[in-house]
Amino acid sequence: MTYSLPLPDVSDPATREFWQAARDSRLLLERCSACGVVRWPPSPLCPECWSDSYDRVDVRPTGTLWSYAVYHKAMSPAFKDAVPYVVAAVQLDDGPLMFGTATSEQGTFGHIAQLQIGDRMEADFDHVTTETTLIRWRRADGDAVEEPRS
Amino acid sequence: MDLDAAIVGIGTTEQGEIPGKSANEIAAMAIDLALRDAGLTKDDVDGLITCRNLHNREGIDEQVGHLLGLNPEFSATLDYGTGNFSLHLGVMALLAGLASTIVLTYGTNQRSLRTNFGTAVGGGADLKTTAGLVHVAGPAAMAFRRHQHLYGTTEEQLGWVAVAQREWAQLNPAAIFRKPLSIEEYLAMDYLVEPLRRPDLTMISDGGAALILTTRERARDLRKTPVHVKAIAEQTALRADQNPDNLMRPWLGDVAKRLWSSSGLTPQDVDALYIQDATSVWVLQMLEWFGFCRVGEGGPFLAEGHTRPGGSLPVNTHGGQLSESYMWGWLHLCEAVRQLRGECGERQVPGVEVALDCSSHDFLKGAASLLSTH
Hints:
The complex is a heterodimer of chains A (150) and B (374). With 150 residues, chain A is mainly β. Chain A folds into 2 domains: 9-59, no CATH class; 61-150, CATH 2.40.50.840. Helices cover 5% and strands 35% of the residues of chain A. Chain A has 1 helix and 8 strands; from the N terminus they run αββββββββ. Chain A has one helix at residues 16-23; strands at 28-32, 38-39, 54-58, 62-71, 85-92, 97-103, 120-127, 133-139. A 5-stranded mixed β-barrel of chain A has the order 4-5-6-8-7. A 3-stranded antiparallel sheet of chain A has the order 2-1-3. In chain A, strand 1 (28-32) and strand 2 form a beta hairpin. The radius of gyration of chain A is 16 Å and the shape is globular. Chain B has 374 residues and is of the alpha/beta class. Chain B has 13 helices and 11 strands. Chain B has helices at 23-38, 61-67, 83-95, 125-131, 137-151, 155-169, 183-188, 216-220, 252-263, 280-289, 298-303, 320-323, 330-341; strands at residues 6-12, 47-51, 74-78, 101-108, 191-194, 196-197, 207-214, 227-236, 272-275, 354-361, 365-372. Chain B has a 9-stranded mixed sheet, sandwiched between helices. In chain B, helix 6 crosses helix 10 (280-289). The longest helix of chain B has 16 residues, at 23-38. The radius of gyration of chain B is 19 Å and the shape is globular. The chains are: A mainly beta (150), B alpha/beta (374). Chain A binds chain B through residues 5-9, 12, 15, 39-41, 47, 66-79, 82, 85, 87, 89, 96-101, 109, 117-118, 134-135, 147, 149-150, and chain B through 116-119, 123-124, 126-135, 137-139, 141-143, 145-146, 149-152, 190-195, 239, 241-242, 246-247, 296.
């Protein structure tokens, strides 16, 4: 079956390497060569030290669930046949916050993945077309990180 | 120290659907109404500040000024339209002597154009779009879910934002949504983006609004009670998702800190509060960040009824964007002026002397203005 939901521009010079690595089930982010900060989204300059020199590094495809939203109604016509679905905000163990659709054994779209803030999460590389792999997030084994209540 | 700037005229067009009019024509209608309100004419205008529409090129000063046959000494356009940012630019232009009578306006035909708001908000758009994180409802739902997790806030507590504003809207003949809404009816509604429901999200409407700004001295000679701009403050968050907890928008607390310190006022001095409400979550956040309750206590504060008609802190007395009309916060400023002038009829809050208008541009900027009749 062909994938009918929005696809990224995998030839965009800013994100080409990111999408290429995703095809190999790797999470590849930019890291400043001068100060070492890992960043997302891609940028020609380090937002910390303004160095324009950077390399790309494999980061751990794991993190902690910061929050999530459950789409019961499509808020864009493109997703009208995809609801319900869950979007996760994952704070990577190696730094940046990333957003992605949540998955579970039951699937991705048309399904509500059961999550709790603080859950340990891992990337699920979803090869949706021959050119494109999207990064979903699923609950990983391990105890949830308890957040303090104030 | 007070700023030498006063709002002396306001104009609001019919809100809802204005078929057959361009955004620029709607802005022009609002300007005409505001000048009449102030008792001024086209010839008095020497400054023009406009807002570009979100999804097209309409609303830039070159078009609006041309349409109205104006050669103002100063003109400018902001490409995001929350009223406070335009007001602040106007105050700056006034204080720098670039102009002395400035019209500020926003007009939109976004409803008639069937504008699609189902796009990703903020940076990293490809990832957000492919994930289905579209429309401001998504990140707002995440922010509220996080608030629930940290502080135990309930959906019922959040529901009081929409319910209270609908109560106010029932007292406002200009409001688009006036049908009564109880907290039970709210909770029985389906989710759009859980934990948010339809009443938690702004409507989409056509409309126009305009303000006239001038110096205190000029204001004294005009027909309406001047509303003085006592203090203004802003804070950006241009690092966006690179800021820790950016969806909670903690940097709005910096706007508040600066505003209270430069004005010498405190939250207790505010008689009527206006919070731009693209979503109900913004009201919860700003009640906390501006110090009307402690951070984390917005839920119980709302459920106690303070913000409702007759409550201790009237909030969005026109119904806001959830019930009156969606005008990027411009109608919040217009309502604040009307309340300060005592023109609000059935919904008039007795003895309003100080009003605060708080607004934000998504997850990128915050601004606030303290307005007063003295």
